[in-house]
Structure formats: structure tokens, C-alpha cells
Write a structure and sequence with these properties.
The protein has about 300 residues and is mostly helical. Helices cover about 60% and strands about 5% of the residues. The N and C termini lie far apart (about 95 Å). It is found in: Membrane.
């Protein structure tokens, strides 16, 4: 025979976390007053807040931006370290694959018309001479530590990608197909992050001027490295020049945008520059008759 048992008052039940009802918590959020288990607690200026209140506050918090309009973030330059990591991993793949990884991703104007992704992937390859990757990674680290926090991650990614592509476009614009014993070929073959690095060098000039700093040292560095490209054989100066012009153009767009239009320019400038690079590439391929030769 069953008998009814009195239901204990609600106030007698131990408080539980709304997100984890199986966990008892006597610590309450300072904003909403609800219990919060250790997993759901976030330190606040006074006491703790629950994750829901912290998330809601983040939505209404004013967007803190850099001088160029990018989202201001603290901590390490994540994008810069990621790019360095990708280059190092790719370099190890080059050594382990016996040249197959390099052959699959390097850029040459002739093959770029068939496999356009090589306009970008070549930037993550390097020559077997370790000094090549060491110099590029050092330059990427130095420039990235300055530009990534100033521009914001999204703008910095756009700058790196378009500078790398711009370097390959420079090779296309400043070279021509040649007749060989086995047919028509269009080189040279290009590997290296130099186009990207020169793009970062180029972007630093207008950015430094926008911040009121002296860009003379960067200009000297650009001049020295440009001269090396013409003196030392085997260096694709065309990629250096293409990356430099691309980076300077995008850096100027970011740095000269009016404060109330920085967000618009942050999206519009990379898209417009990408269109220009595509149009110039297609024009050169068409002017040389390469498209008809490849797809005809």
C-alpha cells in the first residue's frame, strides 16, 4: 500500500547549475543571480559571472578597432605563426617526398593557366638551400609581428594571400613564352614566400606613414633586397616586384581609408585588387596566345 509523501519546499532543494542540472552549485552569477558550476563560471571584476551572461555582454560590447579598422586583439600574432608553420611543414614535405611535393605545387606561368591554385601554393615552397626559408621566415616573423596587430587578422590574411598571388602574377606579366626544341614553354619555375614578404615590406611603407612613423629604414631594406634580386642569379625578381606592388597598393588602401569607411574598404579593397590581378593575368595569357595554345 502506497502513501503520498509531502513534497519538500522548493527552497530546501540545493541550487543546481542551469546548464548542468546534475551539479550542485552555491556560487551565483553576479549579473543574473543563477547558480553556476565551476565549468560555467567566468572571473569578473567582482565575483564571477556565468558563461551565458559573459556571451551576452560580448554581443553588446563596443567593437575595439585598430588605427586601420581591424579588430584589436591581444596576445601573439596567430596568423604570422600559422603561416610560418605551414611553410616549415611544407619544406619538410619537400625533403621527404623527393621532389614530388615541390613539383605538385610550384608555379610557372605556363602551368598556372591550367592549375591556377599554384599562384598561391608556390609561396609555401622553398629551395633546398636552407638559407632561403630561414631568411623568408625571419622576414615574415619581423613584419608580421608589426602588421598583424595593426591591421587586424582578417586584413593581414588578405594582405599575405594577395601579395603571394601578386608575386606569381608579376612573373606572368614580366616573362613570355619561348620556343624550345620540344615546343613552346613558359617559365621560370618559382618557389618561395618572397613575393609575400615583399608585399609585407611594401605595405609597411603607407602603414608607417599613416601612424606618423619614419619609413626610411623599410625603404632601404626594400632597395637592398631588390638589388640582390638583380645581382644574384636564380632569384625571381619578377615575383619580388609583383608582391611589392600588390602589398603597397593594399596597404595604402587600408591606411588611407576614412575612419567611417574602414570596414567597407577592408572588404572592398582586397576584392577589387584580386579582380585586377585576375584581369591582368588573363590579359597577358590572351596577348601571348597561351590560352588558345592550352585550351584550343
Amino acid at each position: 500500500m502506497s502513501t503520498e509523501q509531502p513534497v519538500p519546499p522548493q527552497g530546501d532543494a540545493p541550487p543546481v547549475c542551469p546548464r548542468h542540472p546534475d551539479r550542485v552549485s552555491y556560487v551565483r552569477c553576479q549579473r543574473c543571480g543563477r547558480p553556476a558550476c565551476p565549468e560555467c563560471q567566468r572571473p569578473a571584476a567582482v565575483g564571477v559571472q556565468c558563461v551565458d551572461c559573459v556571451r551576452e555582454a560580448a554581443k553588446t560590447a563596443p567593437r575595439v578597432t585598430t588605427a586601420m579598422g581591424g579588430r584589436a586583439r591581444g596576445g601573439r600574432p596567430v596568423v604570422t605563426f600559422t603561416l610560418i608553420g605551414l611553410c616549415v611543414a611544407s619544406f619538410l614535405m619537400q625533403q621527404a617526398s623527393g621532389g614530388q611535393w615541390t613539383s605538385a605545387l610550384l608555379f610557372a606561368p605556363g602551368i598556372g593557366a591550367i592549375e591556377p591554385w599554384r599562384f598561391l601554393t608556390a609561396a609555401f615552397l622553398h629551395a633546398t638551400n636552407i638559407t632561403h626559408i630561414l631568411f623568408n621566415m625571419w622576414a615574415l616573423y619581423v613584419t608580421g609581428q608589426f602588421l598583424e596587430p595593426v591591421l587586424g587578422r582578417a586584413r593581414f590574411v588578405a594582405l599575405c594571400v594577395l601579395s603571394a598571388v601578386g608575386g606569381s602574377v608579376g612573373v606572368v606579366l614580366l616573362s613570355d613564352p619561348v620556343q624550345t626544341g620540344v615546343g613552346v614553354a613558359w617559365g621560370p619555375s618559382v618557389v618561395g614566400a618572397s613575393g609575400m614578404v615583399f608585399g609585407l615590406f611594401g605595405a609597411m611603407v603607407p602603414v608607417l606613414r599613416r601612424l606618423g612613423s619614419n619609413a626610411a629604414q623599410v625603404l632601404v631594406l626594400i632597395a637592398i633586397n631588390a638589388a640582390i634580386g638583380f645581382v644574384v642569379p636564380g632569384i625571381a625578381w619578377e615575383a619580388h616586384l609583383g608582391g611589392l606592388v600588390t602589398g603597397f597598393a593594399l596597404g595604402a588602401a587600408f591606411s588611407r581609408a576614412p575612419r567611417d569607411r574602414q570596414r567597407l574598404v577592408g572588404w572592398l579593397a582586397p576584392v577589387a585588387l584580386a579582380v585586377v590581378l585576375v584581369v591582368l593575368t588573363l590579359w597577358k595569357y590572351s596577348a601571348t596566345g597561351w590560352l588558345g595554345l592550352v585550351y584550343g
